[in-house]
Amino acid sequence: MSQPTRRSKRFKMESPVEAAEESKPTNVATLPAPSQGEGECSSCKELVENPVSCTKCQKFFCWKCFDVWLSFTPRTMCPVCVGEVKRKIDSCMEHDQELNLFCLTCGTRICSGCFLNATDHKRHQIDDFDVVYREKRTDTNGKLNDVGDVLEKFQVVVDTTRFNEELICKTEETIYLQLEQLMNTAKADTVEWKDMKLSLCKLRKEAPVNKIRHFEELRGKIDGMAKHEFIAKKEELELEAADLVPNSQALCPPPIGYHDYKSSMIPQCRMVLIVLENFSRYLEDPKYDLISSADVSDSSETFWTVRVFKGKHLTVDFSQKQSLKHSLPFQLFVEIFNTDLRNTLRVMQDTQSTNCHIDLIEMDKLKEPGFISESDEVSVSIWIRPWNIMVEREALTLNFLDLKRQKIELDDKHNRVVAKLADSEQYSVGYLRIPLEKLQFPEQSNTDMLQIKSHMIKDFSGRSWRLYVERVKANRNCAESYIGVFLKLCSPLKKKTSTLRRRYYVQLVNKDSDYSIQKCSTDKFNLNLRLGWCPFVRMSRVFADNSGFVRKGAIGFRFGVQNKKWK
After folding, report:
1. pLDDT, tens digit, for every residue of 281-295?
2. Dist. CA 328–CA 391, nearest whole Å
3. Looking at residue 439, what DSSP letter applies?
4. Strands (E), 396-516
């Protein structure tokens, strides 16, 4: 309430609770009649006439400050009352002190009295309220920033998805256009093939008629000629008649098979011909039995095994040699040739399985004329192709992946074997058998050396080696001679100057193994070196009676190269 001694305009202010309950707070209240008087403004501290006073706190305000306050807030409370309400909100109800602390253990605001005097927060973690607020606000801001970054990424995903939607629609149109063009091309190819074949058929149908008409015209022409005119043109007329026959024979129509077509959408057929010889014997024996088989691959490089069985029917069995991972449609064509093309048996069947069984014809019907040739043979033609080019491409892909897998498995197996062999002490061994006549010097010859080389052997790394055996005379005046043996590397190395170190041995075989002559060594090989022993053994020792080196008129050598790299 305003003081009665002061004459002032009184303005009714609302409490915070009343201001919150009203949906539309009133900014201006009804003022009492103006009265004469002066008062000091609580805001600007100036003396003003007829001030506005708060009915709650009895503070005076000039009209200017009051209008400024109303321009900033819709509340009808004066600034002093608002500050008082805020102070009460931020003050402890029990100790009437500012709630400037925060209990981290309990998660609540407290004052210094709650911390010092009360028992609820003793030995709890306490921190300044503003500090806790800043820390938690910073933490929350960081998480909000992370969420914002994720949402920005989501927006990128949305933009990319929209782009993908447009691209999918455009791609669909492009694919439809390409398919339409491909179909038009395939239809044009088919129409061209059909027109060409039909025109050829038309020509073949009309040619005999035209030839007969020309023949009748030629006969009428001859009948209408005078005797002397016929005699003068006899040879010319006979040649004209003879020209009609070869042309007719040249136009004899060959049969159109399943492979005789042209279309960019249809794969070409692969054909295998199976000739069943001595077929008459199968007609007498009704036992079910396999009579022939063959392998054929279609255009997708899928391999098939074709088996022909006889029983009550002549049947054909198809099976894929390597089964595809997915079931793909194929077309199978079987033709049993008849001398009368109109009676030739043609069977077509679609299959999506890896095995297919077709009953072609009853065995008794093959006794009809035309199926069995004069040489007692029946010809069966087999065609196989994928259903369309898409199936062909898919089968090619599956076959490629299967071959790639097999190659990886074989390479892995080869590497394991090579590694195991490289770590072993085994030798790659070769043999050389030399007849004695090849070691004899020719008569009346000045040569002092004979050389014989073995076949090549390979070590674990694929390098080739060869043994050289030489018979050399000691000197021109001496008939005594000896045998030298050498081992040579025949495979190129990475560098011309590089060498390969290996352990090797050479053995002159004796029928009693205890008396065999063997020498071992380790040397560095290159392409220009022959490493071994000279002399290895005297020829007199080899040719001695009961030496055991000569067997069936020949001597034998055994040589080997160790697979393991010798350091």
Report:
1. 888 888 889 999 999
2. 7
3. G
4. 427-435, 449-453, 457-458, 464-475, 478-489, 500-508
